[in-house]
């Protein structure tokens, strides 16, 4: 796949993404949101969903998703959670009350 000049420009902003393999028997054609090229539904590809919301899922080439994940542009939920500030533990909250 040839990357477009501004990859991810067709994707909405999301903190994290779910990725799962897909293959469809429906004779449809989609447009990959990462590279902009056509994607035939009967070929092996992946579904990406922003923040796990499958109602906003998009069909994408597996190669495009792999490249975006390697570049850090499609973080998983676990990867995103590692970057978030941690809440104080139970012991720290109890000691603060005293």
How would you describe the overall organization of this protein?
- This protein is α+β, with helices and mostly antiparallel strands and 98 residues long.
- The protein is built from three helices and five strands.
- The strands form two sheets. A three-stranded antiparallel beta sheet has the order 1-4-5. Strands 2-3 form a two-stranded antiparallel sheet.
- The radius of gyration is 18 Å and the shape is elongated.
- The model is unreliable at 1-8 (pLDDT under 50).
Q: Beta-strand percentage?
A: 15-25%
Low-confidence stretches: 1-8
Average pLDDT level: 85
End-to-end distance, in Å?
60 Å
- What does the largest sheet look like? 3 strands, antiparallel
Please state the CA-atom Rg, rounded to the nearest Å.
18 Å
Number of E-type strands: 5
Strand order of the largest sheet: 1-4-5
Shape designation: elongated
> Number of helix segments?
3
What's the order of the H and E elements? Answer: EEEEEHHH
Secondary structure: helix percent? 10-25%
Category from helices, strands and their pairing:
alpha+beta
Supply the key terms.
about 25% helix, 5 strands, alpha+beta, two-stranded antiparallel sheet, 3 helices, 3-stranded antiparallel β-sheet, about 100 residues, single chain
Question: What is this structure's SSE topology?
Answer:
Elements: E1 17-22, E2 29-31, E3 38-40, E4 45-50, E5 58-60, H1 62-70, H2 77-82, H3 90-97
Antiparallel strand pairs: 1-4, 2-3, 4-5
């Amino acid at each position: 796949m040839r990357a477009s000049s501004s990859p991810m420009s067709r994707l909405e902003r999301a903190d994290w993404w779910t990725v799962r393999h897909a293959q469809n028997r429906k004779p449809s054609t989609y447009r990959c949101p990462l590279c902009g090229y056509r994607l035939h539904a009967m070929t092996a590809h992946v579904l990406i969903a922003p923040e796990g919301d499958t109602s906003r899922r998009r069909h994408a080439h597996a190669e495009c998703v792999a490249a975006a994940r390697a570049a850090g542009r499609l973080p998983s939920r676990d990867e995103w959670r590692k970057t978030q500030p941690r809440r104080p533990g139970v012991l720290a909250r109890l000691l603060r009350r005293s």
